[in-house]
TrEMBL record:
Protein's name in the database: Molybdenum cofactor guanylyltransferase
Signal peptide: none
Pfam families: NTP_transf_3 (PF12804)
InterPro entries in the record: MobA-like_NTP_Trfase, Molybde_CF_guanTrfase, Nucleotide-diphossugar_trans
UniProt organism field: Bowmanella pacifica
Gene Ontology terms, MF aspect: GTP binding; metal ion binding; nucleotidyltransferase activity
Coiled-coil boundaries: none
GO biological process: bis(molybdopterin guanine dinucleotide)molybdenum biosynthetic process
Amino acid sequence: MVVGLVLAGGRSSRMQQDKALLTFDGKSLLEQAEEILLQSGCTKVLISRNQPGFLNDIYPDAGPLGGIYAALMHQAIGDSLIVLPVDMPFASPELLQYLVNKGQAQASACYFKDCYLPMYLPVTQTARDFLQHLLATQGQGRVSALLHHLHAIALPCPPYLTPALRNINTPAQWAEVTGKSPQ
């Protein structure tokens, strides 16, 4: 089973407000990310958000790896995750299907070269154990450390899909994309 995971639990400190609730093309970024994951073929979507009704981190304040670890523990070994940050409004089902197809064909975690997220991540005991140890001993870590440990495959991104990898972190980037201030 391929399960979507939206990472929407960050502090949004650079944006100075909750990015997940910003509206783009008539939908919140959170709604849009969930919809894209479902359209890409995910059976269901988990939302890492540290609020009631959402998937909460087991290790608080652990950044993206906290949400990824919680999702790994929530799903069965043998499932796989497509991990998508909430701040990628141009992500497309086609982009995510490309990741799933490559990851399943290689039976490996994979991501786009020079862009660690989104990623395809099989739910394995190795991934669980690595993140549990990292988060228990260091409190947080880098997504790249997980991918390196799992010998994930860095895929070249087809040029026609490259614009879908853009993320939005600041009010200036938001204004550039939407023509207005974040509200």
